[in-house]
## 1
Amino acid sequence: MSIDIETARRVAKLARIRVAPEDLPELAGQLSGILTFMEQLNEVDVTGIEPMTSVTPQRLKRRADVVTDGNIQAQVLKNAPDAREGFFAVPKVVE
Amino acid sequence: MTHANQLTIAAARDALRKGELSAVDLTMSCLTAIDAGDALGAYVHKTPDIALDQARAADARIKAGDAPDLCGIPLGIKDVFCTKGVPSQAASNILAGFKPEYESTVTSKLFTAGAVMLGKLNMDEFAMGSSNESSCYGKAVNPWKVDARHLTPGGSSGGSAAAVAADLCIAATGTDTGGSIRQPAAFTGIVGIKPTYGRVSRWGIIAYASSLDQAGPMTKSVRDAAIMLGAMAGHDPKDSTSADIAVPDFEAALTGDIRGKKIGLPREYRLDGLSAEVTALWDKGADMLRAAGAEIVDISLPHTKYALPAYYVIAPAEASSNLARYDGVRYGHRAKLSAGDGITEMYEATRAEGFGKEVQRRIMIGTYVLSAGFYDAYYNRARKVRALIKRDFENAFAAGVDAILAPATPTPAFGLGEMGTTDPVEMYLNDVFTVTLNLAGLPGVAVPVGLSASGLPLGLQLIGQPWQEADLLNHAYVLEQAAGFVSKPEKWW
């Protein structure tokens, strides 16, 4: 499977990473190389095998559905690049 | 003359308890070595004030007779661990300025046990890499040097490995997703153990691939690894994948007796093109264990060859999901916006500026293999192959094998800038012997066993059964004693 420039552009968009148009050919080449490496997996007979979901089978622990934490607004916002009046601030989303 | 910073955990612990050494003096000795070791690029945030405060508190505890094993022991902490009020960036520009408001479970346990934090250690960005070259802080350098070149300390825990090997700490924390504790340990002549998945809490460790990540100690001896693992391990309600299983006394398990144990040598690990030197080291290691009374048997792990390609589907898939949180809103870097830029432009510019090239590649590979139409072909297939890889190990253990002996790395440390510059896959091949364990969730330990013809350390890897780290460390202890590896890098920095 080889990734063309259009697919590389689409993947970058899905991943929300800006890639300059002149960098797309090299990126497409590298992604193709990695995917070619993965193609070896097609040699394996996986008939009847369940995809692994948990490497150490265990039932997740449960606890009462109660509030155990909170009232730490200042701490939550402390590392925000832009926090105002108790909110995370972002560029205008809705006109 | 031995300086205090050159001590092992065990020796320092005993000296502290006897009153022959104070935690403050021991810490000062490490801080002095750290300041003289900047050329190694190991420490990326030094925390001498915290260290000395913790050392003074440790001295008071020791005096009061309340001294756990790690009380007063100065450690380096990989930058991937969130440490309260101290920069924790996973070596990424996207977390520039981030100072956590909380403490990771591992560091919290270590500090509760009285350990001293010297600073944060260099690594590959988001733990993605095998050479510590993809760090926003710049490279870490291997203290081992045999010619004009600077060598890699390995990765991703390269700063941890360099710091331990160069005595810039007594021991360090590492994390291992595909080999990131064991490969750098092997490249620098130290010991590193990746525990069973679930043995150590992942809470507060900046995530790369959650189903594979596991933290562990990087130390100067197997005994030290046993002591430190005991302090790091244990159930944590804040990590739902951490196992509620009792933590044994790992140090007490180091009896040196492995008579009657069965050690498997997987034939699929004898790769075409594996150097004669590494093959000879492996045979030598098997001889040592045989001489100690173990039985050496040939075993087969037929899906070995598919471990790396499966890993490079699963790990990037999980990374693309885990790293979606870095969007310039809640923490870290946000790109400067141009007039008219909306929120999508903010995300795209922030992530392009904040993530390095290898991280961007893995996010995009992960995005691709999870995208509609490819999910079954890549991601589900890789998870099925992962199940088969785990079954290979289960079959070997069911046939009576107690532990498996293998090389840790295909080569000794390589030169910085020599690997993977044009083809990322070339770098990935470094993990060929280590990545299988992460996929199977098994514990593995790298032990220094000898020197290459060029004078660089070479390590072997022992692989154990799930939750049997105590038994595994005992095997490693026997190998360590038999190998008698005492070489240290000659100081050039």
## 2
Amino acid sequence: MSFGRARFITGFLFAPIVLYAVYVLYPYGQTAYYSVTDFSGFSPDYAYVGFGNYVELFSDEVFLRALGHNVVVLTVYPVVTILLALFFAFMLNVGGRGDKAGVRGVRGSSVYKFIFFFPQVLSIAIVAVIWRRVFQSNDGGMINSLLMKLGLVEKDKPLLFLAESDSVFPPIHIGDFTFEAPVVLVCLILIAIWGGVGFYLILFSAAMQSIPKDIFEAATLDGATRVQTFFRVTLPLLREHVSVAWVYLGIAALDFYALVVGMTPGPGGGGPNDASQVMSSYMMSNAFRPARFDSFAFACAMGVSIAILTLLFAAAQLRLTRSRDKIEF
Amino acid sequence: MSNLATTTAPATPEPAPAPAPAKPAPKMTADTGRVFNAFSHGFLFIWGALVTIPLLWAVIQSFKTDTEIINDPLGLPDQWLWGAFGRAWTKGHIGEFFFNTVLVLIGGVGLTMLLGSMAAYVLARYPFRGNRAVYWMFVAGLTMPIYLGILPLYLTVDNVANALGLGEVIGLSTHLGLILVYVAYSLPFTVFFLHAFFRTLPTSIAEAASVDGAGHVRLFFQVMMPMAKPGLIGIGIFNVIGQWNQFILPTVIMKDEDKRLLTQGLLELATNARYETDFARLFAGMTLAMLPILAVYLIFHRQVQSGLTGATLK
């Protein structure tokens, strides 16, 4: 019996562990290892160079800009997405017919949910390609041609959108760091929000529905209006969900690769003039369009840096928002 | 007016004149309800339009001629032409891209579910030395972004396949190679999620089956798997969407042109200068790619929504 048990355990764990070790853990280790060498990705000869790649990385102008862009995305994208999602969840759940303080949704709420969520299941490539056309920087673009029809934009001076590298606010320099929000980056953030709101709306909405009705009944009996109920009862109970959403959105903000590659000009995206470069896109273009012989090792150092920054963010976020006392119902 | 005040200033208490508190209260709620309804529908409708219009616009473009697309991007076509769809299917290779994607998706999700539930089950129900170490090894993978492994992964896939003499089977630009990589990267979350799920299942039924002489393997496939169905569906949907939207893995691993997945293929269609002359075909390609997703989503949207959000909260 115990022999059979041991065989069973080994048999069931063998394939998953091998796959995971070979394709996930081993490459992770390799990235860390190559990041302290001058490996070119092709030549088998390489040397140990210590932390040289990291030192260069944090004095590399483009990487610092890319990092700054990630920070801008990280500050704007999660906040706006969560606020909009909460707002719409509020509208869906509080706007309904008046009974039991709005646990019933507005009419047609499932239709709204269906539409809002749809971008989430569209492949990111479809989203990118369509929005590329919507934002097109001449009179063939949807928004430009709409604004021209309305007379808000002159025909020979179309808005550039994805081709515009100027920042929407004057760049702020802190040491080697530059914080700026180029128009092209703002466009990407808008699309990310456009795609993301539906998902978090559903998340929050489901959470609101799962709050037991007697809590609302108690609030109503105490004379609370719907708005009061929402802000004083519903929202505090959603704390955990908002926190989870924040972590997910933050991780997505530190990624952003697909949108940059799919939408922005330049080989491998990131243009114009690196105005939309983020860490991941810069890393990938360094690896596949080498500008120096040890580009691969240099890109590996970026990979490690992205991982460390992501971990730091997630840890900080979880620490900040961990609820002091969990409410069970 | 007083209703508006309550909607815009949530913190302020009830408006001043409230002489008989018992009576006006219900009327108040009914009125705020109506205002809210109009309010909510207004905002919800605007966002709904923002989501739908770009997509509809793209669909309409695929029926136009290139001249119409360039000169009158907002108008409806003079004649609704279907030709672009045919061109997208044959010359744009949308059909092939789709086939590749679906093939990898079926293999990837199927194998992820099988291996993931096997590992999760053993880790959840069989205490043995090193059990926790294996579990945490999988969970650790959850915290790492894919960029940590993506560059050497290309070399690893190549080297492993060649070392085993299976370059044509699981090497670069092979469906099975990409499937194995998808499975490996989907395992951490699948194991984590299903581990928690198997833990919650009652032990008594398993014991009864075991007394009746069911072996470990039979117990798993015939008793535990059916019991875990809700969990399997949730994580299954999560994996379908995750692997469907996967972008960077196929970009790195599928280098051959005829092995491209939909994501890469559509981007190629959009960025490659060769195709720039046929805008209608590009839009038709997008439309063709959107339709099956829309169909599947129409049928399963409830499961998709609850499955995805449920999995996220674990």
